[in-house]
Design goal:
2 domains; Rossmann fold; about 325 residues; 5-stranded parallel sheet; 4-stranded parallel sheet; alpha/beta
Amino acid sequence: MMDKLIERFPAQLAESLEIGEAATITAPEKTINKIYVAGLGGSGIGGDFVAEMVADECKVPYLVGKGYGIPAYVDENTLAIISSYSGNTEETLSAFDQIEKTGAKVICIASGGKVIARAKEAGYDYILVPGDWPSPRACLGFSLVQQIFVLQKLGFITSAISSQIKTAIDVIKYDQDDIKKEALAIAKKLYGKTAVIYTTDRMESVAMRLRQQINENAKLLCWHNVIPEMNHNELVGWKADRQDVAVLYMRNKDDHKRNATRIDINKEIISKLSASVTEVHSKGQSLPEKMLYLVNLGDWVSWFMSEMHGVDSIEVDVIDYLKGELAKV
């Protein structure tokens, strides 16, 4: 099942673009000086991707919150995006309650549930995404693309990024067979090991996405970090031999020159201490193209790992148990 959802990623992006183009977003009544996204899991990480994609263009801070509360800076001059694929995420609804009291401009993105019901009742702008996907983590495209269109329609960014997402669809579709082959090779390198994912600071969301996909699809622990930050702390942790660990670097041809050099030196150090060091290079010209290419490749890596370990990539019984126990309190 999950492999079919991963195969549909380019189609999901295309459908998301159509939904975003057709969405109606009204201008805020007050000046917006910051944007705050409330969302968790597959819905929250969409905000992380957008924050990195728009960093060179959006003139106001784009901030993501992943908890029950909201920071004190959320106020009437804030554009607040409520992102929950199901529309019923407990923490997001709690944040929604608090955001409403601030007078912020509210826009909701969900497939239904309480989020959309509340948006309709209160007269907030909302974007309704398809609700027939069985796994929220497979719906990154819906969350990410709608946030891009909210920014575009309100004039915070131009149409460049949505155009680059269109191009990314072609890049992914054209290379799909090669993506699967490379993903399988990477999964074999990571098999039986704890995966460690490194990339540069501009693409942390990509590494975070792969970590979360390995967690949920393959039912395995792993960790990620970014360069140059990890060179100021985590690198010192690479002191003893760790044959239980396999490292993956996610790279781009236009990484900052100093970061590219740092990665080369890092590889030299870590390859002597880990079971393996593998690197994968993105394809595409723009940042969105590279990020979405690596997302699709990483999703396939996580699925191949689930197959190798003989686990159901869709199943999240422990999260269902947690929710059930929380409901009793």
